[in-house]
Amino acid sequence: MARRIPPLNPLRVFEVVARTQNLTLAAQELHVSQSAVSRQIAVLETYLGIELFRRERHGVTLTRAGKSYAEEVVPAFDAIASATHRLLGSTSQGALRLRTYTTFAAKWLIPRLQDFRQQHPSIEVRIDNAIPDVDFDRDPADLAIQYGDGRWPRVNSDFLFPDEIEPVCTPAYLKQYRGARGRLEPLLQHRLLVSHYRRNDWEDWLAFAGMAAAASGTERMSFGSSVLTWQATLDGLGIAIGQTAMLKAELESGRLVRPFARPYRGDKAYYLVRPKVQREARKIMLFRDWLLETVAHEASDNERPGS
């Protein structure tokens, strides 16, 4: 048997009038006119075929049937309000939950996060590291930073910066393994360091630079992450593909160098993603604004002459 549910807007008006026992107060709470409240009550009474209120000179009072109905309808709306409060509270209250890759967190985000903390000391940021793309319906995250083409279903994405890659090594490694008269091809013939999750980077850059033949027989050493790969590079184990944005500190300090100075940009980039259909809490918008401002400021600095 199909459930009979009356029109919800008139039912909501009935709940407010029954609770306040006053048409004027009900109209104020609902942000409508008093006549609009009366019309909605009339619609509900017509649907039910029962008089719910007595119209008296000083206002309205519930009939016996109306009082009985209100005793069940008002608690139902209270339960809906409580459920809605809990649902919205799960996203608007508490820590900001950010999901991203270990390398991005360690080499880009964490070195800059203190600036956000100084601006917004009341917002706690919790970082969860994961490789698969986020599923906001499944994963406990408010935001995520992902690598890709920016076209993911059911999310809004903000472009952060392109994926710029090129070989990096230590100054000592460059001095030891470059060829006579400064030839750079010999750097590709000793040992190439490879990150497991970025294992195609070497092929992409070598094809771009036209140097695939120079590295065709070179020994390769693989590591489980880019962070480990770059640490091995700093320890002089070989030459690796670096992501320029992630190695800003090492390149500016001179701990690592870009011997070929030929960066390659593919068709993928880093994006900030958030659910497409979600009431965006203040903490989410503050972090998004800070992140985009930080990226824009650094991009502007990089474009200045001499930078």
Provide a compact summary of the structure.
This protein is an alpha/beta fold. It has helices at residues 8-20, 23-30, 34-48, 64-92, 102-119, 171-177, 201-209, 226-234, 248-253, 282-303, and strands at residues 53-56, 59-62, 96-100, 125-129, 143-148, 155-168, 191-195, 219-223, 239-243, 264-275. The protein folds into three domains: 8-92, Arc Repressor Mutant, subunit A (Orthogonal Bundle), CATH 1.10.10.10; 98-149 and 274-303, 3-Layer(aba) Sandwich (D-Maltodextrin-Binding Protein, domain 2); 163-267, Periplasmic binding protein-like II (D-Maltodextrin-Binding Protein, domain 2, 3-Layer(aba) Sandwich).
Sequence-ordered SSE layout with sheet pairings:
Elements: H1 8-20, H2 23-30, H3 34-48, E1 53-56, E2 59-62, H4 64-92, E3 96-100, H5 102-119, E4 125-129, E5 143-148, E6 155-168, H6 171-177, E7 191-195, H7 201-209, E8 219-223, H8 226-234, E9 239-243, H9 248-253, E10 264-275, H10 282-303
Parallel strand pairs: 3-4, 3-5, 7-8, 7-9
Antiparallel strand pairs: 1-2, 5-10, 6-9, 6-10
Keywords: DNA-binding, Transcription, Transcription regulation
GO molecular function, one term: sequence-specific DNA binding
Family: Belongs to the LysR transcriptional regulatory family.
Instruction: State the CATH architecture of the largest domain.
Output: 3-Layer(aba) Sandwich
- What distance separates the N and C termini? 74 Å
Number of domains: 3
> Could you name the ranges where pLDDT drops below 50 across 5 or more consecutive residues?
none
Proportion in helices: 40-55%
DSSP summary: helix tally: 10
Q: Find the CATH superfamily of the largest domain.
A: Periplasmic binding protein-like II
Pfam family, one: LysR_substrate
Protein name: HTH lysR-type domain-containing protein
Keywords: DNA-binding, Transcription, Transcription regulation
InterPro entries: LysR-type_TF_proteobact-type, LysR_HTH_N, LysR_subst-bd, WH-like_DNA-bd_sf, WH_DNA-bd_sf
